[in-house]
Amino acid sequence: MDITIDDNRNVYVVSDIHNYADGFKRLLKKIQFNESDLLIIDGDIFDRGDKPVELYFEILKYPNIQVIQGNHDVWVARQIIEQFGHRKTGEYISYNTVAIMEKRLTPVDMLRLAEWIQEKPYYINLTINGRKYQIAHAQTFLTPERMFDKRKIYMGDGHYEYFIRGMEEQEQFISVVGHTVTDNRRIWVSPSGRTIRIDCGAGYKCYGKEGTLGAIRLNDMKEFYIN
C-alpha cells in the first residue's frame, strides 16, 4: 500500500499493542488524535493482554487509523478461520485472544474479524512531504510487492538480526518496524536515522515485566509513551 501526505497532517506510528486497550486509549488522548491525523498501527494488535475486544472496537471507531498485519494478527485470523470457518489457512501459534473474544462475539463476528485482519496490508510505503518511509511489522524490503513469502515481512529473514541493529539499511527510504522489543523500552533510531524501531514492550506488561507503549510522530520525530 502507498500513502502520500503533502500537507501538515500529523502522522503517528505505534506497534505491538498486544491487547493493551487501556494504554491505547490513553495514547490517543495524549497525542490529541483527531480526524485530520493519521495513525498507523504497525502490527501485533492482539495477544498477551486481556482486552482484545475493547481494543478492536476502539480501533474500528476511527477511519483514519490504518492497520498493518503483524505475526500475532496473522495467527489470530488463521485460528479463527480454522475454528469457526472449519478450514486450514496456515500454521499459527495460539495465545489468549480467540478464547477471550469468542465469549463475547458471535461466530459470524469472529469470522468478520478474521476477514478484517486479512484485508490489511503487510507494509505501507509512506511519503510525507517528499520524505520516504516503509513501515512493516518486522523487516522492510526494496520490492515487497514481489515477495511470495510475505512471512519475511512480519517475521524477518536470515538478515533480521543485522537489520534491527541498523547494519543492513535501505537507502531508498527510512524503515519503521516493531516486532522485537528495544533494549531500553524506548523508541530506537539507528545512528544514520534510517531505521526506527518502535516496539517498546507493552505486550509484556501483562506478565509483570517492564514495558511501555511508544508512538512516534514522523513529521517531527517526537516520541510519546504510555506506561
UniProtKB/TrEMBL annotation:
Transmembrane segments: none annotated. It comes from the Bacteria. Residues 11-183 form the Calcineurin-like phosphoesterase domain. Signal peptide: none annotated. Gene3D superfamilies: 3.60.21.10. This is Metallophosphoesterase. It comes from Lachnospira intestinalis. The lineage of its organism: Bacteria, Bacillati, Bacillota, Clostridia, Lachnospirales.
